[in-house]
Write a structure and sequence with these properties.
With 274 residues, the protein is α+β, with helices and mostly antiparallel strands. It has 13 helices and seven strands. The mean pLDDT is 96.
């Protein structure tokens, strides 16, 4: 199907924004994206039109929600005061096209546990090793074989030695205990919609290996709480350099998570971080 998107949407900026680790870029700049047993090939045709490999029904049922087409990102950017916060205004203008994806909670939780104290290539490598080890095979739209993100049951069934082969380091125990907890019911991945952001954070941080930063990422990228504000080394640097008198968190509610992504991607682009 051909889809016209006039609201902020940039495939590469989304793929490189640090929120997703399984967007596979193709030689022509298109992407293959697995999600919840589905697999999408999406290619930019003109400035505002895209070719998608799915049917119209699949787009409405799966991909429109995943790509967060319900949110008007152009309006969200327009709320940034240019005169009083030129840094955020410029960051948002530079990174126009980033959207906060509505990702699967289980995949997001495991991915960001894996992400601790690692760069993005290392994170992606470990995730792909885990998927290849115990994820179900899928046929991508181009005919290639990829692996779905593995279920909690599949991960819990692995031995520590098998998980170690995914280059997880000290995170091996966290991953195995989390999967086992989901399987035995001691960790629930449901019911978050009834909780406040603070309550979600508290519940996520009760999981072994999940600290404040990982919980904030899961809150933003797995639960789509778009006011969540993960602080890593890049955001800490931004807060120190650009907001020495304090970042106006209250003034920017409920979009702090979106603005955080603009700032994060902008600083990484300045320093040419991959």
């Amino acid at each position: 199907m051909i889809l016209r998107i006039t609201n902020d949407f940039d495939l590469k900026k989304i793929a490189d924004s640090g929120q997703c680790f399984r967007w596979f870029e193709q030689d022509d700049g298109s992407y293959i994206i697995p999600h919840l047993g589905y697999c999408l090939h999406i290619r930019k045709v003109t400035d505002d039109t895209y070719e998608l490999s799915c049917t119209g029904d699949e787009y409405r049922d799966v991909w429109s929600h995943y790509l967060d087409m319900e949110t008007d990102y152009t309006r969200v950017r327009s709320l940034i005061p240019r005169d009083t916060d030129p840094f955020l205004y410029n960051a948002a203008s530079s990174q126009q096209g980033i959207r906060i994806l509505r990702q699967d909670l289980w995949e997001t939780l495991i991915s960001f546990i894996i992400s601790q104290n690692r760069n993005i290539p290392a994170i992606k490598n470990s995730i792909e090793l885990l998927c290849a080890l115990c994820g179900e095979k899928m046929t991508a739209p181009d005919g290639s074989i990829i692996h779905a993100f593995p279920s909690p049951e599949a991960v819990a069934a692995l031995t520590p030695d098998q998980l170690d082969g995914c280059r997880l380091g000290y995170r091996t125990r966290y991953i195995h205990e989390t999967a086992a907890g989901v399987v035995d019911g001691s960790i629930s991945l449901t019911g978050y919609e009834d909780l406040s952001d603070d309550e979600c954070m508290e519940r996520l941080m009760s999981i072994t290996g999940v600290g404040k930063k990982v919980a904030s990422c899961v809150l933003l990228f797995g639960l789509h709480r778009i006011d969540a504000f993960p602080i890593d080394v890049w955001i800490r640097r931004i807060l120190d350099n650009e907001y020495p008198k304090g970042y106006p968190m209250e003034a920017y509610r409920p979009y702090n998570g979106i603005y955080q992504q603009y700032m994060f991607a902008f600083y990484r682009s300045i320093y040419n971080e991959k």
